Amino acid sequence: YRSFLLFGIAYYAFLKTLILPDAFFLLPLVVVFYLELSQENPIEINIKLAAPLGLIVSFFFYVRFFYGMLAVVTFGAYFFSRAISQKKLSSFVSFLVTTAAGYLVLGFFIFKNKYDIFKYLFINNQLNFGNSVDMTLGVSNTTMCFVAVAVLGILLNIYLLLKKRSLFISVNVLYLIFIKIGFSRTDHYLNYFVIPMVIVGFLLIFNKRAIYKAAYFS
Question: Which phi-psi region, left, alpha or beta, contains residue 172 (left: φ > 0; alpha: ψ -120 to 50)?
Fold first, then answer.
C-alpha cells in the first residue's frame, strides 16, 4: 500500500492529467498488471477470463486498428508466457480464437461485406505502427536521449528476469514497438515513447524492495 504514494508522485511528475488519449492503447497492459500484481499470487488465467478479453480486444480493432494490435500483442504474450509456465495452452488458444471470431463478426456488422473486413485488415496492417517518414521540424533526439532509452531497457529487463519473468515477453515486445513508433518521427517521441514507457515503468514501484523503486525514479 505504501507504493500508492510513489505511484502518485510518479504520476504527477510525468503525466499530471487524467486525460491521456495517447495512452488509451495501454489499457490492456494495465489489466495485465492487475492480473499479475493485485494479489500475492497472480490471478489464475482460465477460459472464462481469456474468452471475454478476446471479444473486447476484437472491438478495439474497430476503435483504432493500432489499439487492437497492441492489445493482441500485450495479452497474447502474457497468456502465452503463463501457458508455458503452467503447461496449459487452453486459455491462450481461447483468447486467440475469440479475438479472431469477434473481429470477423463485428466487422461484418460494420461493413456488411466480408471482403471489406479483410481489406480493412490488409490496409491497416501496412499503416499499423505509424508513419516512418522524416519530419523536417528542426528538432532531433540527442545522444543522451538514446542512452536513457537503453538504460531504461536494461533496468526493466533486470527486474523482469529477477522478479517477473511472466511479463518478460510482453514488456520487451512493447518496449521495441514503442521505440519503433516513438523514434520514427520526432514529433511522436513524447506521446508514443515517453508516456507509454512511464506507464510500463510503473511496474518497478509496485515492489517492496527500495532498489526497484530507486531504479524507477532513476
Answer: alpha
Looking at the chain, the whole-number percentage of residues with pLDDT higher than 90 is 24
Q: What distance in Å separates the CA atoms of residue 47 and residue 52, rounded to the nearest whole number? A: 8
Distance CA(143)–CA(109), nearest Å, equals: 49
Cα–Cα distances in angstroms (integers) from residue 85 to residues 6, 79, 212, in the given order:
31, 10, 24
Torsion of CA 133, 138, 139, 140, to 10 degrees: 60
Mean pLDDT along residues 100-113: 90
Confidence tier at 104 by pLDDT (50, 70, 90): very high
What pLDDT is recorded for position 132? Answer: 52
Q: Tell me the residue type at 96.
A: L
How far CA 142 is from CA of 110, 139, 149, 184, in Å, comes to 45, 9, 11, 14
Question: Do 114 and 108 meet the contact criterion of CB atoms below 8 Å apart?
Answer: yes
Tell me the pLDDT tens digit for each residue of 24-79. Answer: 788 899 899 889 888 788 888 888 889 999 999 999 999 888 889 999 999 999 99
Cα 43 from Cα 18, distance rounded (Å): 27
Judge contact between 186 and 133, C-beta under 8 A: no
Contact 215, 207 (CB under 8 A): no
Closest CA to 197 of 209, 188, 207: 188
